[in-house]
Fold each of these.
Amino acid sequence: MTPPPSRARHRVRRALSTAAAAVAVLGALAVPPAHAGASQVPVFRDGFGLTQVADGSVVRSDTDFTLTVTSAEVTGPHRIRVFLPSGYAADPGRRWPVTYFLHGGPGTVDDVAAVPALRSDDMITVVPDGGRKGWYADWVMQNTALGAADWETFHLEQVVPFIDANLRTAPDRAHRAVSGLSMGGSGALHYAEARPDLFGHVAALSGGLDFGMAEFRAAVLATELNLPGAWCAISSAAPGTCADYGPYVDSDAVFGSPYPVLGADRVWKAYDPAAPANLSRLANTGITLYTGDNDLIESYTARAAHTVKARLDQLGIANRLVDYGNGASLSPACNGGHTYACWAPAFADWVPRVTAAFAAAA
């Protein structure tokens, strides 16, 4: 019995589809993957709650690539950019120190391209996504438009061990640093305080370090409410260039209530990188702070940096503060503002110092 034309066509299409799939499989077996002969990018295995997204990798070179991962801790997907030393593949017996770079808000992992010093032949550099307004914290509210937002857990309990498991790192605090700028500056200092077992070195550039300052609490609120105009009003950004901080979330979403009434701001105080109790955890950590003082934002970051330094000094903890003012002492390109024109040379000053410290700890 001859099947109806529609069923016959369906069988033909199914047969052709099956044949095409078989050809594709055979072709995949016969033809090596792209870059198989030339690329030496390490193969990463999932773990520590991270799952790689198929076809989510971007390979710029053997020493500059980006992975995309998902995690239950932060609604995603999210990217992790990695820079390897040029000698990584050629020296398979060597382990390397690692520096983590935390971008500012509302930045991305590709902001690191503006900091050439972090592409160093003396260390691995890892740049995890921190969200447009993640603030490097486990949020009080997990049911906002952004979903799960446990950024601190994502970075410290997942990304760090994931990197150590998949790359030839020197997995100890003496050979691991955390650095960041602006939002990432406060995040870097907080992470060094929260996990002194992980990080032996920290650099915070133009960071919102003192959560006791109303200006920084207001900045967090402006990003939560996606009010870039409010942030631009106190920044040096050109009109019309302020970026979008993403969907509106409740003003208490990240740290809870910012108002110091009957202990309502207890999460702010517990997180506060400038709190003496938190700073005391840095007793054996190499600490470097950078700030300008030549626009409104930098005037605030300078106040915060000097507060942190004064408290560290009172605690007897060694530290280095570079207040480059109007930028003249740092670089001809730096005007002392809240900009990569200052942050790039600041990192160029810090990276040789931290790599020397890594080498001394070997």
Amino acid sequence: MLSLTTGLAPLVLAGLLGWTGAVKLFSRGTVLAAPKTALARMLSSSERAATVLRGVGAAELLIAAGLLALPAHPVPGTAAALLGAGFLGYLAYGRALAPESSCGCSADEDTPITWRAFARAGVVLAGGAAAAVAPASWWSTVSGRPAGSLGFLAAATVVLIALSADLDRWWLLPLRRARLRVFGHPLFGTGTGAADRVPVAASVELLENSLAWQAASPVVRSSLLDHWEEDGWRLLLFSGVYETTESARPVSVVFALDATSTRDTPGDPAVRVTFLDADSGEPVGTELLNAVPSRKALPLAG
């Protein structure tokens, strides 16, 4: 197993660094992701952060090429190990400086720095050290032990995918959705109706991605204040201010959507909205209602 690890470490690292380096160097997402990274906080500049990320990407590609072309030479492996050590130092400092920021490890990753980023950097460090002392080229290892090499590469690929947060949308989220379809939501059965299958937070997220929310959001001035179910609808109550050229009046903003709708429900959810005067309860803002898809007056009743 040790000979497989040292023999195939250059190939595994070349794949990892080649992917992350290409994304950093060539993806347009690098510029968009740079302001969200801890590096931008360190350098006090999104532009400089994007430049450094592209430079790191170029270095990763260069090391990946060296690992592929000179697998039994200590220089590419040593360079990879030093890069991994640098990543660990950067992650530790970034986690302390800006824990809410992303690391920018692949330029597509926008989640905060977690243990997975540290683990992947550790893999680069350990893999580089193994590649530096590899006794033979990776292609001789593959040709000499094809079955074992295939199993090792498959296992390494699974580990690297599991450590890459930006790939979650391709495997982890579908897996979670499939689990919910098979076993149901963990909160199912704690309430009295079908709506209990869908958490309120999920309905709010669905609402905030709808056209109705985009049209009505200039009026909304609060987070969710109350919610209830009625005739298969989940009603969500917000407070707001309806402004005209003459005055501004406080209103209640009531949205309604199918209580069982989720992100997996086909098609756009039907969303209805009403603006009610906060004092009298009378509908207001008919001209704005005319701009909201699927509009229909809703009773304000709990």
